[in-house]
Design brief:
Layout: H1 18-27, H2 36-65, H3 67-80
């Protein structure tokens, strides 16, 4: 019985409008022109990065608006207020 190995590459076939392929090829950086596989891989990685960034920013926005988190941050800020200047007056430089 043969053991089946999982590969790190997944092959998919997609149908794309010719106009999109032409537009992408024209906009692609020189090192990606003519290599549709690398171009699609790069585009998908950028897409995922943008989506993760958007999700993170939304989570931060929601957290910043949360009254409980805002109250906790205020408590922490009061507790650390004395240490903010590290014992230096505002006129002193490091």
């Amino acid at each position: 019985m043969k053991t089946q190995r999982l590969t790190t590459t997944v092959r998919r076939s997609v149908a794309l409008p010719r106009s999109l392929v032409e537009e992408v090829a024209a906009a692609a950086p020189p090192d990606l022109r003519g290599t549709m596989n690398r171009l699609v891989t790069t585009a998908l990685r950028e897409f995922v990065a943008r989506r993760k960034n958007r999700t993170f920013r939304q989570a931060m926005k929601e957290m910043a608006a949360d009254p409980a988190i805002r109250a906790e941050n205020a408590v922490i800020a009061r507790e650390f207020a004395a240490a903010e200047s590290d014992g230096l007056s505002h006129n002193q430089t490091r």
